[in-house]
Amino acid sequence: MTNKREYVRTMQEEVMKRFVGNEEATYIAILNLLHKRSTLLIRAPRGTGKSTLMLLLLKGMFGDDFTVISGASEVKRGEVIGRLHIPSLEKEGTEKVLWARFVQAHGKGIDEVNRLNPYTTANVHHMMQFGEVWAYGQKSTASDYTLIANENPNDLTTFIQPPPFYDRFDVCVYLNSLTVSQKFELQEKNNRYENDLINSMPQVIRYEDLLEIRREVEGTELDPETLGFINILVRDFQVCVRDKEHSSVLPPVLCEGCHFTRFVCSSVKEPPSERATVVLTQLAKAKKWLEGEVRNDDIIEMAKWVLVHRISLVRNENVIEEIDELLQREKERMLERESRRQWFILNELYTNYSPGLYRTAREIAVEDNVFAEELYALEEKWIKEGKIKKEETLKATLGIK
Amino acid sequence: MESEYFRKFLESKSSKVNAKIIGDLLAWDEGLQISRSSKFTDFLELVYAEKTTGDAIVLERGTALDLAERIEWMEKSIESLSKKVKVLVAILILVSLVAIWGWLT
After folding, report:
1. Is the pLDDT at A155 greater than 80, yes or no?
2. Using the 8-state DSSP alphabet, how is residue A134 labeled?
3. pTM (two decimals)
4. pLDDT reported for residue A280
5. I want to staple A44 with a disulfide (CB 3.0 to 4.6 A). Which of A3, A23, A48, A343 is the partner?
6. Which sequence spans correspond to the domains of chain B?
């Protein structure tokens, strides 16, 4: 098998031979494995296969060469990060650290991540952020790795993990419980593999091949329009003319009387971090590398799993349904932008200031706060060049500081 | 600072827009979108049928010439009738003035 794409397809096939339903979540989880320092969070209720999926993915990539720690049992620093080498301390008086297998392993798993103690969480968080771990004043740099964690968000835990920790997970997939026919399917699979789904999973991708795949995915180029689509989509979830990022009052209260209440921004309490853009770009590259193309509809689909753990919504009874609805609204909004030819107008205005086009752009900006931000930037430039006066700007007209 | 990637995005978007800047205005041709189900309607069908099948109406040359001739005849009739109306109004005013003068004397 020389085609590396075949490895990835085989990986998906082997996982799906042993795992029932949740095809979309599994596909995204596999796409997410194709970039460096990949991190995945699986969320599901008890007994719906989150640990099984985590182990199937780790086995498929690393065979038996991976380490899983569990938040359900007491995890000590020595088990996760490293411990002192006592003989060196006693004989030579030097503090030598024996780094734990979890730090050194290329494949890392955390079962029930929401039950980790804060100390372990802080260490794992640091590793995910800076690619290094510290113990006894010494540092170990983690090479390329894959970290897969799972949790049941409905479990009551002693500690609440901080949102920035969850933000470090590239994607978060939600699993559903099985329908009647799917239960039959699982029984068939269990019989076929003698009730040992995980141990029957073969290693499909060698570590060297995985590194090569990741290099190729990283080198895959996206066209400017796909990049633009990703950037605009994420910005739609971040933008707020009332600066909610720095406000103590959040939507819906903050949105009272705002012109833009019909847009996605008014449904988002806490916006996603810039990591959402980075991860969505990585997923788009992986999709293009694997399938040969990535369409805007694919990006909308993938965005769900990138945003779900990074944002807090005004209506959060069913976060997946709510995000789905917001993303559908985004699809329509993108079409509206196309029909207004607004990027063409902005491009013309970047080249030449034209009062007539500026008037049209102002009308568009009233309908699109993301476009408005770009127009504000141009207005600043034109004020400096003496083409318009500050009191004539759209910002001044809308009363935005 | 302007981003090179952002400008590339704008340029790429603009290259696909068939629009023109005319003075201070932006103009583009929407094109006539005719779906498979939407057919052309004949002019006579439009005149005599209650419902038409399509959004676009086509005229045969003969029908168009008939129509143009009819419009010309109607324009001439309108011109001649308006002249007659003007004369009748003048006569009406004259008769009214004579009647008023007779009533006063």
Report:
1. yes
2. E
3. 0.81
4. 97
5. A48
6. 35-105
- Asked whether the CA dihedral A295, A301, A307, A312 is positive or negative, the reply is positive
A177-186 long-range contacts, Cβ below 8 Å, gap at least 24?
A177/A45, A177/A48, A178/A20, A178/A21, A178/A48, A179/A21, A182/A20, A182/A21, A185/A20, A185/A21, A186/A20
Render pLDDT for A212-247 as a digit per residue (tens, 0 to 9): 999 999 999 999 999 999 999 999 999 887 888 888
Q: Which of A344, A353, A357, A380 to mutate to test the interface with B (most CBs of B within 10 A)?
A: A344
Residue A125: Cβ within 10 Å count: 19
Task: Give the ipTM of the model, two decimals please.
Answer: 0.82
pLDDT in tens, A297-336: 999 999 999 999 999 998 888 889 999 999 999 999 999 9
Q: At what angle do helices A369-384 and A355-365 cross, to 10 degrees?
A: 150
Chain B positions in Cβ-Cβ contact with residue A354 (cut-off 8 Å): 21, 24
Domains defined along chain A, listed by start: 4-219 (3.40.50.300), 224-398 (no CATH)
Q: Contact A344/B25, CB-based, under 8 Å?
A: no
According to DSSP, the β-strands at A312-313 and A82-84 are unpaired
